[in-house]
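thread from #wetlab-drylab

HS: before we spend reagent money on co-crystallization trials with flavin mononucleotide, can we at least see a predicted complex? here's what I'd submit
DV: go for it
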Amino acid sequence: MRQKMKKQRTNQNHLQHVSACRKQEWKPGNMVYPVPAVMVTVADKEGRDNIITVAWTGTVCTNPPMVYISVRPERYSYHIIQETGEFVINLTTRELAYATDYCGVTSGRQTDKFETLKLSRQKASKVNPPLIGESPVNIECRVTQCLKLGSHDMFLAEVVSVHISEQYMDLNGKFHLEKAQPMVYSHGAYYGLDHVLGTFGYSVQKDSSFAHRRSNKPSESKKQKNREKKSKNSGRHRKKVL
Ligand SMILES: Cc1cc2nc3c(=O)[nH]c(=O)nc-3n(C[C@H](O)[C@H](O)[C@H](O)COP(=O)(O)O)c2cc1C
């Protein structure tokens, strides 16, 4: 017998009519866009470092925190990652768009990209490759598996440490990546993100909650909750667990 369904709270105020589109069928290809374009730092056993731009990257597991990068074996950085099993993912911003592109069209075989771009090296805590000082988030990674897929090999890696720029944290300990003006890559072009459409779960939340989040001004009760959470998890930024 069918059980009675529990009514899910929805916020119909934001429900819009969306029209279905007429489609063409294309041959199989890479069409998941937009994606991040990150600057990955590597360092060989002699300590020579390099930066490679990678768009085939993402999160694959929440707990343990795991990510991947897919790299073509012909890249100069490929063998360094394979030999050392370490890399750092440095998130990119509007200000870093030029550097991101440059690191994706020049090779560390001929160029010291840190020097040419006047980027700062910061010491990582658990791995040897440096962090890019100008990047708002640096994710230290240790490779757990290398999957040979075809054109690219996929390095699956565990996140072993994360560095967050203090300038984008508010007094409640919440990190505002949007203030760093992150960028995305789509079909050969770099884009900024300058408009919030909604926040996680807004389709089922009360209006007031979304309005507070949209203006980035937490309500009094929210502030109180944040303070409690902050004192519980001091040193850890808040995040939605997916
Ligand atoms: C936006 C962008 C995204 C890229 N994504 C990847 C990628 O996901 N995997 C890859 O192997 N190369 C990717 N590349 C190409 C490498 O970054 C490029 O070949 C680079 O010069 C390699 O540097 P290296 O020789 O110093 O290792 C990308 C380039 C750009 C501009």
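DV: The chain has two domains: 35-190, 204-234.
HS: ok that's useful, forwarding to the group
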